[in-house]
Amino acid sequence: MTEAVGDCSERTLIARLRGRLDAPPSFVRIGPGDDAAIVEPPRNFVEAVTTDVCVEGVHFDRAFVPPNAIGHRALAVNLSDLAAMGAAPRIATLSIVMPPALPLADFDAIVDGFTALAREHRAALVGGNLSRSPGPLVVDVAAIGAVHGRKVLTRAGARPGDYVYVSGSLGAGRAGLARCRASGHGDIGQDAVDVRTRYLWPRPRVRLGLLLGRTGAATACMDLSDGLADGLVQLAEASGRGIRVDGSLLPIDPEARQWFESRGEDVLQRALAGGDDYELLFTVSPRRLGRLRAAARLTHGLSLTRIGQVTATPGVLVESGGTANPVTAGYSHFGRD
Amino acid sequence: MTEAVGDCSERTLIARLRGRLDAPPSFVRIGPGDDAAIVEPPRNFVEAVTTDVCVEGVHFDRAFVPPNAIGHRALAVNLSDLAAMGAAPRIATLSIVMPPALPLADFDAIVDGFTALAREHRAALVGGNLSRSPGPLVVDVAAIGAVHGRKVLTRAGARPGDYVYVSGSLGAGRAGLARCRASGHGDIGQDAVDVRTRYLWPRPRVRLGLLLGRTGAATACMDLSDGLADGLVQLAEASGRGIRVDGSLLPIDPEARQWFESRGEDVLQRALAGGDDYELLFTVSPRRLGRLRAAARLTHGLSLTRIGQVTATPGVLVESGGTANPVTAGYSHFGRD
Questions:
Q1: Alpha carbon distances (Å) from B73 to A115, A334, B79, B270
Q2: Which of A109, B53, B149, B220 fits as disulfide partner to A68, beta carbons 3.0 to 4.6 Å?
Q3: Digit-coded pLDDT (tens) for B192-218
Q4: Which of A9, A145, A335 minimises the CB distance to B132?
């Protein structure tokens, strides 16, 4: 019989979790185990603080998201937020609310997925909380990063004439989710080249965010967790400006394009609406394109695509086939999809 | 018909939440609304970081815990952890995972219960996350406080001969929970004098924790969220020592005692096992009783009771009726109560 978390005491599970963690960095004076962790704050930097919760049945489906991907994604969405502020990850906390029937091996895998990504980005897990649940699996993460006070990237700095860029490609998150739903994750690992990998193992653009902040290349930045249309509207609103996008320039993932086309779906609409891409959307002053090129040389081949320009007039317009259509933030209904 | 959170968009709920927050303190450079908040770290202090999750059906029952008490308690358990480290609260994040049928008025009340306690302890809500849930209501909070690097209170500093103290009274949390279960909360407010109030509106001992740290009175400290027996064992183990407690000295709440006695329950066992008291357990060197008295004068009348002494021999013993009985940490089963 498979051992489940419900067969263990909370102490056993905490010990099990701690046994899977790396030794903390020296700025963590006291790690997990006391009433709170004790952490030296960054010197001469400010802190970026974010939190994001992943709920089974809302943000992920255990039928096709393997447990290590659940742990990976729960941290990735938070690191993506830090990246969008130009902050380097430092510490994170992890709360897992688990149905008692959750297999112990799945618990281990959630923790391992989390810690593998944490290790890659040098984020130390300093605190956590385990609880059982009469309902779905919930993984809640708070993450804190460090950024120089004058290098913070916000959504609010875009100025008319700035170019609008997006990193990587669009649509892979949505197409990956659709493919997972249709086929299950099978044995898709992180190394596979497949839109499912892009959905299951998103790569937060931490390095790009740091470079955009440090070089001063970007005037505004945010991440695309809720899709490009939502991002464009949020960034334009926060900056009190508008954005005009050329739909033909969107870097739509080829496999995602093929997937949408084969289903007769509107590729442009899918790329605009689709979430889960965790790319960065940012604006660059034309006078600072040299800084952007300098940053781009250090992003390990991550593509940066110019898709439009900031306008003085508020509102977001997407040009396609000779017409310019207004884009509004998706009405995300809280009660259902 | 009652409006529910499921009738709203996430944006509407976030706007509603933000409208209920106080203006942030000046060290919060960017509050909620961007990808992450930007906070100036404390100068010359270290940070205490903690997180605690409250799950409906596990940690609270909506049948008798009113929504503002749910918000209050979710923050209180975290502030209690900060207090146990000697840290002053600074910032907090709040994640609420909600069934769509949750009335909007309840959502408001959860936020108001949280912010009222945050205001009292000068903790700024800098980030949050709202999600719907196909299951129970989950409220997850992370809190960060500041403490001087040489004034941190841990569980590990107790030395043989130190006196063992507990703040306030014991048993009220458990008796309050039992009374709530039996009678419902009715219209019990925070000002009522009743064990139900103690369960519903726990007062984290933030001021005491600060005083114990700043004066150097305590050698070790922790909070009693999981009960006195658990606390004694944890503190003794972390310090590599033992503790001998005189059961007759335990400051058992009179109303709680009456409640347990009227049900034929073992009062001492109930006081040892009972959680939800959020008092501080701490040890004091006999040479530093002067410092403790100095601290005690500033605690606004909160009683501090000496209940035992630290021993060189490991293990926790409770003397009662001429015999000394060993105490072990409660086997808290993860799968069920």
A1: 30, 25, 10, 22
A2: A109
A3: 668 999 999 999 999 999 999 999 999
A4: A335
Sequence-distant (6+) residues with CB within 8 A of A150 are none
Residue of B228, B233, B284 lying closest to B253 (CA atoms): B228
pLDDT for the residue numbered A11: 85
> Which chain B residues are within 8 Å of A80, Cβ to Cβ?
35
How many whole angstroms from its chain centre is CA B328?
22
* CB neighbour list of residue B226: distance below 8 Å, 6 or more residues apart: B275, B330, B332
CA dist., res. A222 & res. A231, Å (int): 7
Contacts of B218 (CB under 8 A, 6+ apart): B86, B153, B157, B212, B282, B283, B284, B292
Strands B45-55 and A37-39: antiparallel
Tracing tokens 């084969």 back to the chain, one arrives at: A262
End-to-end Cα, chain B, rounded Å: 36
Q: What are phi and psi of A269, to 5 degrees?
A: -60, -40
Ramachandran assignment for B278, one of left (phi > 0), alpha (psi -120 to 50 degrees), beta (any other): left
Tell me if A101 sits within 8 A of A4, measured CB to CB.
Answer: yes
What is the DSSP-derived secondary structure letter of residue A322?
T
**Nearest partner of B122 among B9, B50, B31, B22, judged by Cα:** B22
CB contact under 8 A, A131 and B58: yes
For residue range B59-92, what is the model confidence (pLDDT) as tens digits? 999 999 999 999 999 999 999 999 999 999 999 9
Q: Which two tokens stand for residue A209?
A: 């965010």
First to last CA, chain A: 36
Query: Is the Cβ pair A130, B238 closer than 8 Å?
Result: no
Rounded to the nearest angstrom, the minimum Cα separation between A139 and chain B is 10
Contact A55 B131 (CB under 8 A): yes
Distance CA B307, CA B152 (A): 23
> A222: closest CA among A238, A205, A241, A235?
A235
Cβ distance of B58 and A154 shorter than 8 Å: no
Q: Do the beta carbons of residue B132 and residue B5 sit within 8 Å?
A: yes
Looking at the DSSP bridge assignments, the partners of residue B222 are B281
> In chain A, count of helices (H) and strands (E)?
10, 13
Let me know if B23 is exposed, middle or buried by CB neighbors in 10 A (0-12, 13-18, 19+). exposed
Angle at B39 between CA B34 and CA B42, to 5 degrees: 170
Q: How far is Cα B337 from Cα B335, in angstroms, rounded to an integer?
A: 7
Q: H or E stretch including A176?
A: helix A172-183
Cα–Cα distance, B54 to B184 (Å, whole number): 19
Closest by alpha carbon to A41, among B118, B49, B79?
B49
The chain A residue lying nearest B230, using CA atoms, is A11
Q: What is the pTM of this model?
A: 0.95
CA angle B195, B201, B207 (to 5 degrees): 110
Mean confidence (pLDDT) of chain B = 93
CB-side neighbour CA atoms (13 Å) of A193: 3
What lies within 8 Å, CB to CB, of B159 at 6+ separation is: B219, B239, B241, B283, B285, B310
Taking only the tens place, the pLDDT of each residue in B120-140 is 999 999 998 999 999 999 999
Which pair of structure tokens corresponds to residue B129? 């996350």
B234: CB partners within 8 A, 6+ apart: B155, B222, B329
CB count within 10 Å of CB A24 equals: 17
Tokens 């909160």: give the residue: B302
